[in-house]
Design a protein that fits this description.
The structure is a homodimer of 352-residue chains. Chain A has 352 residues and is an alpha/beta fold. Chain A is 32% helix and 22% strand. The first copy, chain A, has a six-stranded antiparallel beta sheet with strand order 6-7-3-4-5-8. In chain A, strands 11-10-9-12-13-14 form a six-stranded parallel beta sheet, sandwiched between helices. Chain A has a two-stranded antiparallel ribbon with strand order 1-2. In chain A, helix 5 links the parallel strand 9 and strand 10.
Chain lengths: 352, 352
């Protein structure tokens, strides 16, 4: 058995892999320790592909004159100097696909050697070594074929890629799987609630509608911005009612949800448009819950909006992680042809 | 009985008082209808004092050369043209103190004529008329003596000022009463939880500590940034344990809470400093809840931080309104000499 030099006790969040600056979390670190040897709760992945974050890739293209060779050199330089793929300008990373190569004896992740997995924690905190110079990548797409290895900590998230679905489809589902999982949990706390999903025809929105129904919603309302989206969502047959409203107009949104059978006991905001906070609150019944999944959500607009409306509603920050979130989302997709066709019609980037 | 011209049905959120632009909420309106006559669910207040929002007053002072006469003229102009005191530059307002003058027969607020109240909804959405030209105000303080009237909608918040406490103290308590109310509700969902309050020596923090204990916390941990605050909180005797940590340093914060008896089942963030999201998440146990009351909270930092740590925690946007919040906070203050002395030592602006 290989000797394992372990200079300090491991930390489930990977503090032991931080080289500089001292004492920060791996995501905030400038440089990570990428040694192959695992701490007892770690897992090593043989990497097959990196999916760079779209904002990061765009920045790299622009700062390198859309020259694929220079983009590739820049990515190699970041990974070599930082020990992780975190764009210093955008701060963002991406995720990876690979195969489990070794599992530490104390790993709690439930993975086995040979599992083909996607990591659902960010590359910004994942120790990474590339050993092929990214030779198979032309630097012109955020899909990066890659040979090398990555390390997952005790507290991490990786999902086994199912064999019955195309990889690209599974990844698209996993990318938004936090929304249906939290929706399911919240809906389960109510008795036969009315659930409104703002942005119901999107990927996270359609899965959230399916999750709400499966968790016991009496009525699901899909809110969309215009006729074309309404037709798409109607064909997918995943909402009990489809209604059209501008989510940035509180009065119009609340009226549309009301007419569709609201107010909602649970309102899920899945549309990445700023200014939806007031409408979501106004469309929600007293004692109800609003779950904000949109990264365009303004914390203060939500807090002050609810206060200004004297609204006794619970407002949740959509945590991207709920245990079992990937499995739940995949099973919702398998069980619902309409959701699957919606994902396919929206275009799933082919990952091979 | 006075004749009441009511041209359209009233709305509990005051849509019927919006003159321009059409169809927006009163807070977003340029101009409100300030007619004296009440819709059936409204209440009219005889105003005694406006408390301008600090950011708004600062902006008015700076844009008017710190000339009290000009500041006063600017405020009068805003109120006359908009029908509400909403600074067009900052978007903010403030609150008011006055006496209930008339109660519509369908008002759900539980107020009686003659009650001395503070409005806990913002001036940014409250129809307001000033009839003394603010003659008693020198334009040099955000405390504005004022004669005139204001209108509260069906869905609004006003708290009766207690007779046993100085007005300034009651107002200071009401200003932060959302935090202890929501803390109490969340703590009550757990069985004898550990509760950490970040910024425990502040006004909202100390009330939240008291609320947590009253709601069944087994252990309350007050986190403060330095020795002086620790001494203050220690003397107030409102936390079971006081610990010092920089809340912007996730690793240090989590370690301090751990040593004080954590991780916390409920973590309440009451400190108005950016960058506390990761630490709050890391200091919280699996299955726990983080309540963000700080307006410096970044929605995306909270959402991505929890995901990056694979943290199964519930994250709440601190809604400033929970029914009964003012009464709860006032009774906590009355019942806890340490909290009261902390408020008094922190300086409560005298309102007369």
């Amino acid at each position: 058995m290989e000797e394992r030099p372990v200079p300090q006790p491991g930390s489930p969040v990977g503090l032991h892999r931080v080289l500089a600056p001292a004492g920060v979390l791996p995501q905030a670190a400038e440089r990570l320790d990428t040694r192959r040897e695992l701490w007892p709760d770690e897992v090593r992945i043989r990497v097959e592909r990196l999916n760079l974050d779209a904002a990061s890739f765009r920045q790299l293209e622009e700062s390198n004159g859309h020259d694929g060779e220079r983009v590739r050199a820049a990515v190699l330089d970041i990974i070599a100097s930082r020990g992780k793929m975190q764009n210093p300008e955008t701060g963002s990373g991406g995720m990876l696909v690979g195969t489990v190569e070794e599992v530490g004896p104390e790993s709690p992740l439930g993975l086995a050697v040979g599992d083909r997995v996607a990591t659902l924690v960010s590359l910004t905190l994942t120790p990474l070594v590339v050993d092929d110079g990214l030779a198979a990548w032309d630097g012109r797409s955020e899909q990066v074929p890659c040979h090398g290895y990555a390390v997952l900590f005790g507290r991490s998230i990786a999902a086994v890629l199912p064999e019955d679905l195309p990889t690209a489809l599974s990844l698209a589902v996993m990318d938004v799987c936090g929304a249906p999982a939290l929706t399911s949990r919240v809906v389960g706390r109510y008795n036969a609630p009315v659930v409104a999903v703002i942005g119901g025809a999107g990927k996270s929105g359609s899965l959230s509608l399916a999750a709400a129904k499966a968790a016991g919603a009496a009525r699901t309302i899909g809110v969309v911005p215009h006729e074309a989206e309404a037709a798409l969502l109607g064909e997918a047959d995943v909402a009990d009612v489809v209604t059209i409203a501008d989510a940035r107009d509180p009065v119009a949104l609340a009226a549309a949800v009301e007419q569709a059978g609201g107010p909602a006991d649970v309102t899920v905001v899945c549309v990445d448009v700023p200014g939806c906070e007031g409408g979501a609150v106004l469309a929600t019944a007293t004692g109800g819950t609003v779950v904000f999944f949109s990264m365009a959500t303004s914390f203060s607009a939500a807090a002050l909006g609810a206060e200004g409306l004297a609204a006794d509603v619970t407002m949740l920050v959509g945590n991207g992680y709920t245990p079992g979130h990937a499995d739940l989302a995949l099973s919702l997709l398998r069980g619902h042809a309409g959701v699957r066709s919606l994902f396919e019609r929206r275009g799933v980037k082919m990952v091979r």
